[in-house]
Write a structure and sequence with these properties.
Strand content: under 5%
Structural class: mainly alpha
Largest sheet: none
Number of strands: 0
Number of helices: 16
Distance between the termini: 58 Å
Order of helices and strands: HHHHHHHHHHHHHHHH
Length: 326
């Protein structure tokens, strides 16, 4: 991108503004926030010089993402507000992304109620358009917000939802962050070994795809690592972390979903057959169905039907007054 920009006509144009913005986002993804900010600032200058509303909105939105990564949530919110107003005038799906990002910045400023309203609105707009990519981002942010409120059940539901969306899209960076969010919830809820395993699985994805942690992600990651390490001790923490890292990449997305399904549930007993990877029978069913290519809805229906049939078989025994575990 930078070589192309150096060779191209330097006159302001929407195309140049877009190229600068994407170069900045790539630098941000690599964790080079200083370079990212410089490129995004240039993008905004070029976009304003063109007077093109879409170019200006895109440049504002991209700069906001870099500013969030640097932890300047006040400026980020102002950039997103301006971008949102322009996107609303232009129509299309980008307003929903600006809404979600504005919600993230607002949450980090301590305005939880308004942040929740913005995120829910953004989520609804993404769902109405069938945009699973955007749904994943909104659910991830709502998971963060629920965790900060101490609502573990809500946080787990939101992070599971974002994992489903990004599993369908094959987005490893999103899967890694969903794992980090679940790890933080697990650590908060007294499941340090599970938290360390989730962190280890996320670590592999981050290394493989060069995923830098941004400001909000760093906070969740550091909280999970600190709590799990303090609860387990260094040796046990390292062992659980390595267990998570040992998941074969080809099975990573399926294992991610199975691990997410077990978060904050009592750890299953270690089976004699090592081929089950320490998962419960129900988790193995989830894993098998995912590997076979079934969607989340199909998996839910299959598991529900199986449970319903088992429940029907037990019903006469219940009527006879016998007790059976569910």
């Amino acid at each position: 991108m930078e070589r192309a920009l150096a060779r191209a006509d330097a006159a302001p144009s929407p195309a140049r503004a877009k190229a600068l913005a994407w170069a900045g986002l790539l630098a941000r993804a690599q964790g080079d926030h200083g370079r990212a900010a410089a490129l995004e600032e240039k993008s905004l200058v070029v976009a304003r010089a063109t007077g093109d509303a879409r170019a200006i909105a895109d440049a504002l939105h991209s700069l906001g993402q870099v500013v969030v990564s640097q932890g300047d949530y006040g400026r980020a919110a102002a950039l997103y507000e301006e971008a949102l107003a322009l996107y609303r005038g232009l129509g299309g799906s980008l307003a929903a992304f600006a809404l979600v990002n504005l919600g993230v910045a607002t949450a980090q400023r301590g305005e939880a109620e308004r942040a929740g309203e913005l995120l829910e609105t953004g989520l609804a707009e993404h769902r109405a358009r069938g945009n699973t990519w955007g749904v994943g981002f909104a659910l991830r942010a709502l998971g963060d917000l629920a965790r900060t409120r101490g609502d573990h059940a809500e946080a787990i539901a939101r992070f599971r939802g974002c994992l489903v969306a990004w599993n369908e899209r094959g987005y490893p960076r999103g899967i890694a962050y969903g794992l980090i969010g679940l790890a933080a919830v697990a650590a908060d809820g007294g499941q340090p070994e599970r938290a360390a395993r989730l962190l280890g699985a996320a670590d592999v994805l981050r290394e493989r795809f060069g995923c830098a942690l941004w400001a909000t992600e760093r906070a969740a990651h550091e909280a999970a690592v600190g709590a799990a390490r303090a609860a387990l001790g260094e040796a046990a923490f390292a062992a659980a972390w390595e267990e998570g890292r040992a998941l074969p990449f080809t099975d990573a997305r399926a294992d991610v979903m199975a691990l997410a399904a077990s978060t904050l549930e009592p750890p299953p007993p270690v089976p004699g057959d090592a081929s089950s990877f320490g998962l419960t029978a129900r988790e193995l069913d989830v894993l098998r169905l995912l590997v076979e290519g079934h969607s989340d809805r199909q998996i839910g229906e299959a598991l529900f039907i199986g449970a319903h049939r088992a429940d029907s078989r037990r019903q006469p025994l219940r009527q006879a007054g016998r007790q059976h575990p569910r």
